[in-house]
Amino acid sequence: MSKVIRRDFLKGMAAVPFLGYFAFAFKGSIGEEAKGKSKDIYETLKINKLDATGQKLLPPTGMGEKPLRIGVVGNGWRGEQLLRSLGFTHPDFVEKNTIDGKYTRKLEEFLNQEDLNVEFAAVCDTFDVRTQRAVEIAANDLRPGGRKTPKPVKIFSSYREMVKSNEVDAIIVATPDHTHALIAIEAAKAGKHVYLEKPMTHTIEEAVELRNTIKSTGVVFQLGHENRQQMSFKIARELYQKGVLGDVSMVQTFTNRNNTFGAWIRDEAFDHKLGNESNINWKEFLAHAPWHEFDLKRYFSWQRYSDYGTSVTGNDFSHSFDCVNQVLELGIPETVVAIGGQHYYKTHGDMPDVMNAIFHYPNRKLTLTYDCSLKNSIYRQAKILGSEATMDVDRAIMIYKDGLSERYRDIKANASDPMYYYEPNTGVDAISSATSQAYLKGGYGPTYIDGQVVDATLLHLKEWVDAIRGKGETSCNVDVGFEEAVTFNLANLAYDSKRPVKWDAENEKAIIL
Amino acid sequence: MKLEHEKIANSYSTKQLVVLTSLRILIGWHFLYEGLVKLCMPEWTAKEYLNGAVGLFAPLFKAMAGSEFAMTLVDTLNVWGLILIGLSLFIGLLSKPAKIFGIVLLAMYYLAYPPFPGLAANMHAEGSYWIVNKNLIEIAALSVLYFFPSNYQTGIDRFLFATKKQK
């Protein structure tokens, strides 16, 4: 009987020896496991904790104050995007984003975005269809924070009257590049604050004049590189400054596109088919550009004509430049060479579609390169090559240790796998494990701050509006804008002259060598 | 009535019992270790995991990650859930509810990153999965253990339920 009970007892306890072994051995294993998993990223990178990731969103702007009255010059596709970030959208957008009576996430996001307490007071556009659209945008009562009584927008036939009007406090300029400086300078002289779309100016001379005017008038200026608000670049900057990359000897930037829209051929894009000689103010569009007969191609694909646009460098490199300039504070290069040609899209303008430019910064012991092909759409992030590590940066960050790095000698990570990554939609920054090598392609887009995903353009506009209201300063001010404008314009001069171009910093002039 | 499973348990051959007990111990081991590792890392939180959730229930998981209160609750329940379920399976103590809770927990992991085509890849997964992944298989294994229990034979439950069994 007792034997049966004993056997019965042992059977019931069958698993206990295994638990005993588990209890005996797990402590050693778990210690290793926990150490591996919670390994401090900052310890790995040999830096203190990052400040950038702890940044907080600023409180709502202009509470209890009078709304800021904003005039928009150029309500094209970008103008309309800026208006949406300001809290004004077209009924079309509402209709497209209402399915079976329910709002889409995109529309919900619009309705939940911060109300910047601004008034869409005035508009001016050389294309009547776009002016009418602005009227409809202003009449739409569906706005962030609920329905509001719409106030009609005042239409100006020219920016010249708008900047002088006492019904406008500040101006947003989203026009073709050749009119940027013209409008911004007039606005500043009339005491209006300016938000100017990128690139800053069509020429270096204009950049000098605009900077001087902004400084002498003291108006609040913001250049429209909304990536200034992007968390990844703030983190990248801090990582660089803390020595994570070592000595940076080269910075690489890219444009890769492979269709006509990407090549800025846009006569048939958007609502451009509606354009004709009777609804376009051709003379006003030309402004101070050389006279030319009315031409729809020139009007709608102006980016491709050097009379109005700033080439691939102004269209796209200016973005990448401002991003890496934020990280590294590069400033203006000493010498620039550029070569390429218009080989594929010959129907419109004189813009190259294959181009390489090299910018030399001897005092920084580095070169910045720009490679552009409009016949290949591979995606490449900006790359910063350091002696200790290489950084891929866009909205995401990936850092690869250098195979011969001293600093990271004891890190086992394979040099071809990122040892650090920043994930843009969740704000996670971590050491890569073998399982997280999803190669993050961040592109451009919203940023992650203070636990929230936020539209970078809204933050950029808010920064400007806050600065006008006396709180803080703009991050893409006229000095960094000046660096952007001079840098890409030097490349355009080098491309046009097929000669190296040197920057004479003292006299603020380009010298074609 | 409730002794249906126990009746089955009484009819196992030795080999069947060994295999079922092994499976129970293995799953118990897995749960217990996962729980203890998390317990040993004070800074551990499921926040990143929930924030990255994809699929139909992603908004729910992301909402949890957004609330501090919910995260404290989720983290505590997750860690201690794993430990207690693991321990229970391991030694065969009150294993029946443990299996149910285990299935619920695994189902949550599964739904946070359902391996369906078209959804963003789970950065936390280390293999290639389509509809079926290791979470789903572990759910199935726990279901098997639920209907073919071994705890009434090779677990502490043998003593707890002994009186009933002798009736």
Descriptive report:
The complex is a heterodimer of chains A (513) and B (167). In chain A, helix 9 (180-189) packs parallel to helix 10 and helix 10 runs antiparallel to helix 16. Chain A has helices spanning 2-12, 16-37, 41-45, 77-86, 91-96, 105-112, 128-139, 159-164, 180-189, 204-217, 231-241, 282-286, 296-300, 311-328, 456-468, 478-497; strands at residues 68-73, 98-99, 102-103, 118-124, 142-143, 146-147, 154-155, 170-173, 193-196, 221-223, 248-256, 335-341, 354-361, 366-373, 382-386, 389-393, 397-401, 420-423, 428-431, 447-449, 452-454, 501-504, 509-512. With 513 residues, chain A is of the alpha/beta class. Chain A has an eleven-stranded mixed sheet with strand order 19-18-17-16-15-11-14-13-12-22-23. Chain A has a six-stranded parallel sheet with strand order 7-4-1-8-9-10, sandwiched between helices. Chain A is built from 16 helices and 23 strands. Mean pLDDT of chain A is 92; it is low at 433-438. Among the domains of chain A are: 68-175, NAD(P)-binding Rossmann-like Domain (Rossmann fold), CATH 3.40.50.720; 229-261 and 301-512, 2-Layer Sandwich (Dihydrodipicolinate Reductase, domain 2), CATH 3.30.360. The mean pLDDT of chain B is 83. Chain B is built from ten helices and no strands. Chain B is mainly α. In chain B, helix 2 (14-40) crosses helix 7. The chains are: A alpha/beta (513), B mainly alpha (167). Chains A and B meet through helix 1 and helix 2 of A and helix 2, helix 5 and helix 9 of B.
Question: What is the element layout, followed by pairings?
Answer:
The complex is a heterodimer of chains A (513) and B (167).
Chain A: H1 2-12, H2 16-37, H3 41-45, E1 68-73, H4 77-86, H5 91-96, E2 98-99, E3 102-103, H6 105-112, E4 118-124, H7 128-139, E5 142-143, E6 146-147, E7 154-155, H8 159-164, E8 170-173, H9 180-189, E9 193-196, H10 204-217, E10 221-223, H11 231-241, E11 248-256, H12 282-286, H13 296-300, H14 311-328, E12 335-341, E13 354-361, E14 366-373, E15 382-386, E16 389-393, E17 397-401, E18 420-423, E19 428-431, E20 447-449, E21 452-454, H15 456-468, H16 478-497, E22 501-504, E23 509-512
Parallel strand pairs in A: 1-4, 1-8, 4-7, 8-9, 9-10, 11-14
Antiparallel strand pairs in A: 2-3, 5-6, 11-15, 12-13, 12-22, 13-14, 15-16, 16-17, 17-18, 18-19, 20-21, 22-23
Chain B: H1 4-10, H2 14-40, H3 47-51, H4 58-66, H5 68-91, H6 95-112, H7 134-147, H8 151-154, H9 157-160, H10 162-166
